[in-house]
Amino acid sequence: MNSKHGKSRLINRNLAFPLLIFAFLPLVGSAQSIAKEAKPRIVITCDPELDDNNSLIRFLLFSNELDVQGLIYASSGYHWKGDGKGTKWYVPGREYTRFGLDTCPCASWRWDKDERFIDNAVEAYAKVYPNLRVHDPEYPLPEVLKSKIRFGNIEFDGDFSKNTAGSDLIKSLILDDQPGKLYITAWGGQSTIARALKSIQEQYEFTTQWEAIKNKIARKVVLLPSGDQDDTYAKYIKPNWPDIEYREFKNGSNYGFGAQLHAKPADSLYFTATWMKANVSSRGPLGALYRVWGDGKQMVKGDKLDFFGLSGYTMKQLKSMGYVVWMPLQEKGSWIGEGDDFTYMNMPANGLRAYEDGTYGGWGGCVVNDHSTSVFALPAGDTSQQVLAAAISSANAQRIKEANSYPDFFPAAQQDFAARMKWSVSPNYADANHPPLVVIEGPLNVLASPGETIKLTAKVADPDGNTVSVKWWQFQVGTYTKTIAISDPAALQTKIIIPKDALPGQTIHIIFEATDNGVPALTRYQRVIIKIRD
User: Please, what CATH class does the domain formed by 9-31+433-532 belong to?
Assistant: First the structure.
């Protein structure tokens, strides 16, 4: 197999699974194995947008590799429930002021009165849990996931004036003494997160513990936002908690609405109706919940911005029916979007170690340091449906431009998703594919001097006895930015000569990649970070 990273070597591992793993275990015990490290602790906060629903389904399939601490309903500028008392709410510039809409101030916005999409997803997970556990016993019990569900600050967009069950849970997690980072996503607005931080501030600001509390939170909390969808980051979190790490990503694969509009040729297949039906939407209870074009569903009945479930109509006809058609219509059954995937796609144990540092990069992209928002912002008076479609098209084109030098991880991520969906409907281990096992002999963090030769050895095994192709390549995220020579990129053993112009403290990231020939083909990695000695 050829790629821009060099040719791959095929390694045949036609051994019985138990014997293979038995032979592999001594190496695992003597080398760093990312999969054996503590699982990242993560909280999901999300609003009832259909792409949040889809992102949540994929997320639950990764729950075997994560320590899920919270699944929290949140509001945003796009969805809020109201207080049930008829109180009217209005924020200038929100989507209800666009496209000729004139419906707010209003008592709620695009929120079902009995909203339970998180509960629905976890209940679907419970149905397939016996199958998932066959393929990995690390999948959490459904009861454990159910116990993590809370409602956060959902009454009004951007309102964090009250404590809620969701904010209380986040507060308790922030203040606990569990080791490691606490990763908190914001797929919708950040008001629930803001409320948790505000309640901590109110409790401790005028005590002798305040400085220690602030320092602890700065060390511990990592925010993983899908933009600032209710302005609470800009207005409260950033001014009052400037030292909290805030990871926004760029360059990674586009999982969002309209991703197919500017997809690379190698990625286009994974958006099609044929691929989606074969690998996602037809796959049992989780597939039945997953939203695709023309599926006849809406997150909220009568929602004029959720036209994706309708099929057989032209854009003109949909507009005449009162729908806001803000992107071109697509093939029935094809991809709609999972616009929040990038917030957690660097977290799973695929060997890229991307969760360790936002600059490392992985399936979710690389960190953005300017805290720029990733949501579309249109002028408050804009009534043109074409403007938003153009904004989506322009943003997608910009993503492609920025990602030219970034590895295209999308096929590997999609094939991994397809495999996990297959696990969910396969009660027998042998009926599905599983990723290869990959380790590096010796440490994954190496000190070296300019001109020094580094020898690297990898070992690969495949639990299904598949043939595995391997390659070494340089991930251009290190601070040494020039290309280095890899002696034999298609071998298990290779040599790297550290350039003589490398400066003290600079880093070089080397990836060992292994892909099996199962269906779907699955890829795992190991990352070696070389740091130049001072």
Answer: mainly beta
